[in-house]
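Interim report, section 4.2 (structural modelling).
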Amino acid sequence: MKFSRRHIISMKDFTRDEIDFILDRAIKMEDLLKNGTSDLLKGKILALLFYEPSTRTRMSFEAAMLRLGGNLLNLGSKEASSIAKGETLADTIRVISSYSDAIVLRHPSEGSARLASEFSSVPIINGGDGAGHHPTQTLLDLYTIKRESNLDHLDIAIVGDLKYGRTVHSLAYALSRYGANITLVSPPQLTMPEQIKVDLKTRGAQVSETENLDEIVGDIDVLYMTRIQKERFPDPTEYKKVAGAYKIAPNLLENVRQDMIIMHPLPRVYEIDSSLDNSPHAKYFEQSFYGVPVRMALLTIVLGVEM
Amino acid sequence: MNSEKEMRVRPIRDGTVIDHIMGGQAMNVLKILGIKGTSSAVVSVAMNVSSKTHGSKDIVKIENRELKQKEVDKISLISPNATINIIRNYEVADKHRVELPDIVEGMVKCVNPNCISNTNEPIVSKFLVKKDPIRLRCVYCEHVITENIAELY
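Predicted structure of the assembly:
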């Protein structure tokens, strides 16, 4: 499989075989983590360019690189860099790609990672581009489903902000490759963009929509919750109307399938009652952890490590 | 005796006739070609003329100017069935259709205000073109445009 030096921009760029290849590599990485660390990426440098705040994505990339014996270059704050002087992303990428072996980019504008790939001499990994894509989150979501449930012909409900939430767009595209039955649950103001729904159906996914989570919670294998993202709303009054529209509390889980799992990309605010954290259904902290082996897998693949 | 169509818009001696423009799009065609009322070119416009094949059509005649293929291909997004006639001494010297390209670069702006192509980056807009009906997909942000394309030039 030709992955070496390839950019990771959007889940749409991947075939199912390629996704499976990455997830299989992640299983090897999880085994490797259990046995300590490795020097598979010794001498390699990963640059982290984060123009927007991040905890999990940035730190799990750092952890992944360090676990593999590699080194990190961090942009630090925007204010302390040339970005504050008005440097274009294209110029920044040209320069940083000459310092490093791969770049992880998070940027507020949609399409920024695609642009970066046109100017970079090393692989660009999209760590989130505005309301666009977040493929490594999707890969770790798929890995969580593979580990904790079953990827094939899955019944999944994706709940919350389906309009602005980039993780759900990427996830829905990827699940369409596994014949998933996807139920989209959101308030009317936050439904999934029409163009994405059309794309999903074209790719063979079964897609239905509802506002009412209670109605369908007994018929799913995975409940994928998302946060209603305040920062994506141009109008604060619109945010207030829908904030807290869905909340998972113990009573919601009375009639769910025994092996149903709850996932969440985190951070959560109100969406999941903390009393559920130790429930066998709750898998969101495992999901967070899986970000490390999945990103280890991806880094070894784009940097050309054969295993 | 002249046909009804010829009486409405008289033949030109030299220049370009753009025929089979989608009905109602003639003014947008002029705008896209950069032909304004302030230029000296003699331009005749017929709008909503009945057409055997497309219901109604517009016709634009530009005197003493031969439009190049690259110029007229610009209008393909709003009028994919248009034909171009280059006229020399009242005769049709050359006739061809506009060609809808698979990709358009630097022609229209992305409608998504948060798209990286709408910033000061050193790139031009780039769209993949799908036909029947025309859909433009931004290569950068993947936003799909299907309506009001003429306003994005």
